[in-house]
Amino acid sequence: xxxxxxxxxxxxxxxxxxxxxxxKWLSGYCIAARSRLPSKxxxxxxxxxxxxxxxxxxxxxxxxxxxxxxxxxxEIDTLKERIKELEIANAAISTSTVxxxxxxxxxxxxxxxxxxxxxxxxxxSDRIQFLIDCGLQQAEALGIDERTxxxxxxLLQHNSKSAELKELxxxxxxxxxxPKRYSKDVVKLLEKYGYSKKAEKTHVRLEPDPxxxxxxxxxxVKTPSDxxxxxxxRSHIENGLGISKL
Length: 246
What we know:
The protein is mainly alpha-helical and 246 residues long. It is 56% helix and 6% strand.
């Protein structure tokens, strides 16, 4: 064995009763010895090749020129066969790689490594799509390559914004229709999305859950003066939640 000289004699007698037992013991010992060799050890094919090469070197002096040439030709043929085997194996790997590329990838939010609470279910996916859209709008200025642009467009074409975002906007649209119930209804709604009420004299201050990083504190007017005031309040809430451009 390379860099690990190991020697042991086996013979029939004692625990080894016959030739069958001898072969069994010898095989087991060889396997155990090979398993203890370092990772840089030879594989079986290389071991055979090295043994054959050394035998040829020992016998070279006793061979004629013709016999030496025949040995070299045999060695060349052996190497050619080995090259063919490696080429076939390499071709199989290449074919497998090409075949695997035929499988279409899918948008998978779980593939993004993050640990952040959502205001609503699907929020992170909505924001990622928004970021992709922003990147496409500035693709030329940013020097984004064509392949990345194609992938980004495909992602946006095959994925839509979450139903929960639509529901949040619809609920917000409903609570601003009645000025008399506005402050009460909007507080009740936003408490469902992680806000807590901090009452003050002329308005209501809503503070977000500390874990909702990037979400702003909201100031809700208790008695909106007119429709314009309600519209401004809605914009204020959407901007605070960061959903106005999603």
